Amino acid sequence: MDRLKKQAVDNRAAARVVRERGNEARAEELEARADELESGRVTDATDVVSGLVSWALRR
Predict the structure, then answer these.
(1) What are the per-10-residue average pLDDT scores of the chain (59 residues)?
(2) Where is this region: Disordered (predicted)?
């Protein structure tokens, strides 16, 4: 879950940058994604995918 929270923080920072550059639509997309990450509706499958790749490469 820490990865998702970190990504949400990064998305909000990126939204501030693109908003300063005048791209309000992209900033809203990034903030919506950050909200989604923080809501818990998104699952972190990094460990599962990494395990599957490692397993496949050993075979």
Answers:
(1) 91 97 97 94 91 93
(2) 1-21
